[in-house]
UniProtKB/TrEMBL annotation:
This is LytTR family DNA-binding domain-containing protein. The modification 4-aspartylphosphate is found at D57. Pfam families: LytTR (PF04397), Response_reg (PF00072). It comes from the Bacteria. GO terms for molecular function: DNA binding. Residues 157-263 form the HTH LytTR-type domain. Residues 6-120 form the Response regulatory domain. Keywords: DNA-binding, Phosphoprotein.
Length: 263
């Protein structure tokens, strides 16, 4: 087995830190690389060792988790970030700092394992040969654009992970969210919602999507035009749309007019 993925736990509550350490012990492919009581300690820890995944609380003194995650986005190689919090009202804000997942306390073993599986998929893609191949395709696409050539619209996506190549039809995608250097494809099927991680930036993928089928709702979300079922105000200048699957996506004021036109 390859070396375990390294996790840094950041939470101002000692009991919460201990619970996360215990939860990680049941997953031998993961190792707790340290525990920190706040952003300042985490900053020092990350300067001393490499970290693959950050399990980060939101409500912390001095600097909250959202602010710290936004700071990490500026790093050349930021770790994956998963928020672990008792407060659900920050879930939309997590989109803005490219969080991979949002874990509500108290969580059960199954939900924790699902989060780690998603994180492992993202990290493995970075090391996989498919990563170099997909990046090569992305660079060729950008070169085509630089030369003034329009990219043809895609009918399907080829998604690669370890030991698996999957062909996903555009018609099966309800919406797409940004996840750091990846996108998450939210698929609606008979068994419910399924999320698949794909190596691409949201902006690059937007250039290849059928323009009559998808639209921007937020800088971190592309949504199928006919998927909206309701729209609500969540704050001053912030909105949230509910889709046919029951999932919700943030809607920014910039794209509000276009989204309203769909109702």
């Amino acid at each position: 087995m390859s070396s375990p993925w390294r996790v840094l736990v950041v939470d101002d509550e000692a009991l919460a830190r201990s619970n996360l350490q215990l939860a990680l012990m049941d997953h031998p492919r993961w190792r707790c690389a340290g525990v920190c009581a706040g952003a300042a300690e985490a900053r020092v820890a990350m300067a001393q060792r490499e970290v693959d995944l950050l399990l980060l609380d939101i409500q912390m003194p001095r600097q909250n988790g959202l602010s710290f995650a936004a700071e990490l986005c500026g790093l050349a190689k930021p770790p994956l970030v998963v928020f672990v919090t008792a407060y659900d009202e920050h879930a939309l804000a997590a989109f803005d700092v490219f969080a991979l997942d949002y874990l509500l306390k108290p969580f059960d073993d199954q939900r924790f394992a699902a989060m780690l599986a998603r994180a492992e998929q993202a990290l493995t893609l970075k090391q996989n040969a498919a990563y170099a191949e997909s990046m090569g395709g992305f660079l060729r696409e950008q070169g085509s654009l630089a030369n003034g050539n329009a990219c043809p619209e895609l009918d399907f996506l080829t998604v690669r992970s370890v030991g698996l190549v999957e062909k996903i039809a555009m018609a099966d995608i309800e919406w797409i969210s940004a996840a750091g250097n990846y996108v998450e494809l939210h698929l609606q099927g008979a068994a419910g919602v399924r999320v698949v991680l794909h190596r691409s930036t949201l902006s690059a993928l937007e250039l290849r999507l059928p323009k009559a089928q998808f639209m921007r709702a937020h800088r971190t979300a592309l949504v199928r035009c006919d998927a909206f079922t309701s729209l609500e105000v969540t704050g001053d200048g912030t909105y949230r749309a509910t889709l046919r699957s029951g999932e919700t996506v943030p809607v920014s004021e910039r794209f509000m007019k276009d989204v309203r036109a769909r109702f």
